[in-house]
Amino acid sequence: MKTVSELGFWQRMAETRGEVILFFSSAGCHSCRIWRRLLKNLEDNRGGLQVWEIDAGIDMGITQEFEVYHLPALFMFHNGQYQRPIQVEARVHALEQWLDAHADLPPEELP
């Protein structure tokens, strides 16, 4: 799992191939700690998947850009293109099913 900031974010994302889950979190968020463990496990076991974490309390510009109102918040990118927000229960199997079901859908516009 990479910790990223809003500085140079869009350029890095445009150059990235494969699946990226963008994970907005905060140090004091209990649900974020649960998701962090789940996402690390998924990243270790799913080839081609990267997880990028953004601290919503520090990088407020990009947090507002994605219209994040609650934490954790997850968004899917594929080959540098925004796909959609991820809304699924915090279970590896449920997230894997969601990723597989949405893998071939066309990109959406950012929030």
From TrEMBL:
It holds the Pfam family Thioredoxin. InterPro entries: Thioredoxin-like_sf, Thioredoxin_domain. Residues 5-100 form the Thioredoxin domain. This is Thiol reductase thioredoxin. It comes from Acidithiobacillus thiooxidans ATCC 19377. The lineage of its organism: Bacteria, Pseudomonadati, Pseudomonadota, Acidithiobacillia, Acidithiobacillales.
